[in-house]
Amino acid sequence: MKPQRRSLLKRLFASVAGITGLGVAASKAEASVAAPQKEVFNVVNEKDVPLFSGSTKLGNLVFVAGKGYHKEGDIKVHTDEVLKELEKELIKAGSSMEKVLKVNVYLHDLNDYKGMNEVYKGRFGSKPPVRTTVAVYGGVPGDSLVEMDCIAYI
Amino acid sequence: MKPQRRSLLKRLFASVAGITGLGVAASKAEASVAAPQKEVFNVVNEKDVPLFSGSTKLGNLVFVAGKGYHKEGDIKVHTDEVLKELEKELIKAGSSMEKVLKVNVYLHDLNDYKGMNEVYKGRFGSKPPVRTTVAVYGGVPGDSLVEMDCIAYI
Amino acid sequence: MKPQRRSLLKRLFASVAGITGLGVAASKAEASVAAPQKEVFNVVNEKDVPLFSGSTKLGNLVFVAGKGYHKEGDIKVHTDEVLKELEKELIKAGSSMEKVLKVNVYLHDLNDYKGMNEVYKGRFGSKPPVRTTVAVYGGVPGDSLVEMDCIAYI
C-alpha cells in the first residue's frame, strides 16, 4: 500500500471518528477504533459514594443533571440562577446554551409559569431547545421554585 | 491516487456521513466534514424573543416539545389530540410515530391512566417506544388533561 | 483496485459501522449501509395491542421505560426493586448500570429523598449518570413509592 493512500485513509478516518466522538488508535497498517465511552463531570458523592454527576457525555451528546436554586428569591431569581447553573455544566462539558436540544422544567407552582418564561426566553439563542414544563407542588427538592435539566450536544 | 480509488472513498464517506446526518464538503484530494448542527422547527416566540421550538434535530435524533390540548374534552379527546400534535411535529422533522423511542406522559389526574391507555395503545406501531407516566395534579399548563413529549429518530 | 486495499477499506468500514450500530451490506465493488433501525425489548400489550416497550435501542443508545414496584415495602425496598428492574432491562438490551447516562426519579413523597439516596448511591459505579428528582404526591402509577427511567448506551 502506498504511503499517500494510507495517509488519506487515516485522515478520513480521523475525521469520522472526531465527529462521532470516538477515540482512535491507529497502528501502522490497520486502523482500529475504541468504542465510545461515557465521560462524567462534577460528580456528587453521598458519604464518599458516587451519587450522581453534574453532566455526562457520550460522543457528541451531553446530559445535564436537574438543577435547583436553594436560596431566597422569587421565580425570576430562581429561574436566572438555575439557567446559570445549567450553563456552567454545559461549558464544563464543552457545550453551550446555544447547543441545547431539550429542556425539562419542573415548577413548584404553575402560577410561576409566566415569571419563569420572562427570564427563560432568549437564553438559549435564536434556535431554542424543545421544552416540557409541568408543576409538581412541593415536589422540587431543596425548596427551589424551579428545577431544570437538559440534553445538549458538542 | 487513481480516480477509481478516490471515487470509492468518496462514496464510502458519503454513505457514512449520510447515516450520521452530517454535511459533507469534499474537496479534490481531501474529504472534510462539518460537525453536526442543530435544526429547529416551529419556534414559539414570547414577545418576539425565541422561547422554545416545536422540535429540534441533531443528526438522526429528533426531540419534540411537550404538547397539551387546550380545549374542551375528556381524557380520550385530550390524549387523541396530543398524539396528533406529536405526530405533526414528528412529520415536520422527517420522523414518524413508528420511529419514536421514548415518550413521557404527564397526566393531570392519575385516574385518567386507563382512559389515556385506551387511546394511546397501538398509536406508535408494533414496536412502541418506552414510556414513563406520572400525574402532576394541576401541574399541566393550560388546563390540558395530559401533556406528552417524545424523543424519536429519522 | 487491488485486493489488499479493498480489504483494508472493508475492515475500516466494518469498524465504523460496528461502533455506530449499523448493519453493513457490502457488495463486491461497493459498500452500502442500512440506516439504523429501532430495536425494542419486552413489549407490553394492552388487550393484544402494543402499549409500550421495556426498552428501545437505536445505534448505541438505549432508552428504558419508567419502572415502579407494586408490592409492600418502604422507600428503601421500592428503590432497590426499581433499580433491579432497570438493571434487568439494561442487560436485556446489551447495556449495564455502569453505562447509564441519565436517570429520572419520580418520588411519591419528597420526604423519601434521603431514603432513596441511601439505596441509590453507588449503584451505577464510579461514574454515575446525571439525575433529576421530583416528587409527584400520588402521581406514580400502581402505588409505587418511586418510579425511575433511564437513558444508557452500549
Automatic annotation (TrEMBL), chains A, B, C:
Keyword set includes Hydrolase: yes
InterPro entries with a match to the protein in the record: RutC-like_sf, TAT_signal, YjgF/YER057c/UK114
An example molecular function term from Gene Ontology annotations: hydrolase activity
Gene3D superfamilies: RutC-like
Alphabetical keyword list: Hydrolase, Signal
Enzyme Commission number(s): 3.5.-.-
Endpoints of the signal sequence: 1-25
CDD domains: YjgF_YER057c_UK114_family (cd00448)
Enzyme kind, highest EC tier: hydrolase
Short name of any one Pfam family annotated for the protein: Ribonuc_L-PSP
PANTHER family: 2-IMINOBUTANOATE/2-IMINOPROPANOATE DEAMINASE RIDA, 2-IMINOBUTANOATE_2-IMINOPROPANOATE DEAMINASE
Protein name: RidA family protein
Organism of this sequence: Larkinella bovis
Organismal lineage: Bacteria, Pseudomonadati, Bacteroidota, Cytophagia, Cytophagales
